[in-house]
């Protein structure tokens, strides 16, 4: 255990009680105010200063990149924590130490500490005649994670940004030494902006003086998006490392239209795919070249689109450590790293494949992997689909509809879920055969009980199906 202890007494919560606290906070939604988390952390004696942090933002690929980064740093001998969102099945999945989700007891303790810190901060604000903070669910989770990680005595925490970057709760951490942005897409447009450039500006805010920076392949195009990041780097005195594929075909579905500029004056990392998987369980094999080293024989039991995320993670780990990696440890870390909900087989026979793709870019990358496994649409299994209404639903449906012989439409229990009947109408306008419409994911899965199917459309869809098959 670490040497950190909370500076005040905290009531004991059960796991169920901690979830109730979180759900009570959810009604406040998203509050663009870092001071809330900053003041809560200060009240707790700055647990975030007990370890170094790495922060990863982006529309697509940030969860996988975060997981690979954590695995690589652990392979270098560091006691590593990982903070990701959202969970697939259990809230405890959001906080990992040493590659394992924290216990329900540790999770509940962290929430209790964060809740008490928020209560104390707001009590003091009220006494001073100031408006109390609206403390959100993500505020509580982020502060709780810092406490849990500090008490566990970790060396480094890998922090996945929840949304955007500028106002994300993870940005309140004072120990961030390295950042990465994996890519940009039209996501959370009601909050982050309705153009790629506006969204890029929100995510680029994680780039600050004194931090190393890696810009993934999804930041390369269009030029106007890359310009947002390069201007931020220049303003903060940061020289980024740009991750770019040697062959543009290796980044299919990961970049917007256009050819990346050479940006020859900046350091680059690149990758070459040596072997692509042509069936589930066959490895992806790639080579990675960074400004510090070349690594060969890296394998992952994942589709080809993960090559960009692995390369981003390799480069970010190097930038954090300030040195090249142990090649053998790197290979071992990547092949063993799990990426739940990312091209994830949750039942082997008949196969059920889930994927957390939730916008046109990630759907495009997912479909590239599907085509590699089964080129003929008519031979592919049925699609089970549910989406969130605040996404680019028409863009998602237009990509998925021609790629499957039939679809079952449903909706998750998220308050942001699109009604299944509305989703079915969109699939029908694309000429897709709608086999069924169900108000619950459980009902949709039951309708496909004895056959293979693919489930995607949102992270909550992947999580709901994973919960059914994995418990």
Write the layout of secondary structure elements.
Blueprint: H1 15-25, H2 35-43, E1 52-57, H3 62-75, E2 80-83, E3 95-97, E4 100-101, H4 104-127, H5 137-152, E5 156-160, E6 176-183, H6 189-192, H7 196-204, E7 212-218, H8 223-236, E8 241-243, E9 268-275, E10 284-289, E11 294-300, H9 306-321, H10 327-336, E12 344-348, E13 351-354, H11 360-373, E14 382-385, H12 393-400, E15 407-409, H13 420-429, E16 434-437, H14 441-447, E17 453-456, H15 459-470
Parallel strand pairs: 1-5, 1-6, 2-5, 6-7, 7-8, 8-9, 13-17, 14-15, 14-17, 15-16
Antiparallel strand pairs: 2-3, 3-4, 9-10, 10-11, 12-13
How many domain modules? Answer: 2
Helical segment count: 15
> Biggest sheet, strands in spatial order?
4-3-2-5-1-6-7-8-9-10-11
Going by CATH, the homologous superfamily of the largest domain would be Mur-like, catalytic domain
CATH architecture type of the largest domain: 3-Layer(aba) Sandwich
Major β-sheet annotation: 11 strands, mixed
Report how far the terminal alpha carbons are from each other.
30 Å
